[in-house]
Q: What sequence folds into this?
């Protein structure tokens, strides 16, 4: 019998639009940052996806990049 995932186990996936809203930037800026490998992301087919926790960690670790 498998256990139900805990909040720590769950992964929240965001779209480029959601990341742009979260960071207060244009969607194009998010795509540019991903293309330049400045922001953590994964490619799923033609889509870019972002893990919320990875973005928050990246923000803490790179407070003044850019």
A:
């Amino acid at each position: 019998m498998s256990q139900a995932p805990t909040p720590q186990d769950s992964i929240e996936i965001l779209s480029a639009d959601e990341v742009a809203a979260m960071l207060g930037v244009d969607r194009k800026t998010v795509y540019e940052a991903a293309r330049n490998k400045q922001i953590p992301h994964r490619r799923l087919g033609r889509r870019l996806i972002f893990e919320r926790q990875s973005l928050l960690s990246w923000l803490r670790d790179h407070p003044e990049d850019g």
Remarks:
- DSSP finds three helices and three strands in the chain.
